Amino acid sequence: MKKITTVFIMVLAVLSLSGCYDRSILDDKGLNYFMPKAENVKYTQSNTTVMLTWDIPTEIPEEFKRPIAVQIQVVENDIYKDKITLSNEETSYSFIIDPEKEYRYIVKLVGTFTEEVQETGRTSSVTSEGVIVNVE
C-alpha cells in the first residue's frame, strides 16, 4: 500500500508540475531581426600560421550599432578550444597552429541593437549563422 501511495504522489507531482510553464514563452525568441553571415570567408596557410579573411556585408540592418563585432570559434581536433571576439569590424585574424592537428574555425557576425529598438528584458544582440572553415 505504501508503494502505491508513493507512486500516486509522484505521478500527481509530475502532472502538476508539467503544466507550470507556458510553451509560447519558451519558444518566443522575441526577435524579428537577423544578422547576415560573413561573406567571402577564406584562409591562407603558411607553415604554422593560418590567416582567416572575410568581408562584412554591405547591407547590415540599420537596427544594429556600428561597428559590427566578429566572433571566431576555434575547434582543434574536434575539441572546442577558444572564442575570439573582434569588436571593430576587423576583416582578418591570424592563428598559430600545430600542422599535425586539424582545425575548424566558425566565423559569425554579432550585431548589437541601437537604443531605439532595444526592448527591456530582451537580448541586446543577434549573432549570425556561422561560416565554417576547415583547415586540415
List the total number of helices: 2
The largest sheet is:
5 strands, antiparallel
* Proportion in helices: 10-25%
Return the structural class: alpha+beta
| Helix-strand topology string | HHEEEEEEEE
How many strand segments?
8
What's the pLDDT, averaged over the residues? 85
Strand fraction equals 35-45%
- Spans of at least 5 consecutive residues whose pLDDT stays below 50 are 22-29
What is the alpha-carbon Rg in Å? 22 Å
Global geometry: flat
Quote the distance from N terminus to C terminus.
64 Å
Question: Quick recap of the structure?
Answer:
By secondary structure, the chain is an alpha+beta fold. The chain has helices spanning 2-18, 23-27, and strands at residues 39-46, 49-55, 69-76, 79-86, 92-96, 103-112, 125-127, 131-135.
What are its keywords?
about 140 residues; 3-stranded antiparallel sheet; alpha+beta; about 15% helix; 5-stranded antiparallel sheet
Report on this structure:
The chain has 136 residues and is of the alpha+beta class. Helix content is 16%, strand content 40%. The protein has two helices and eight strands.
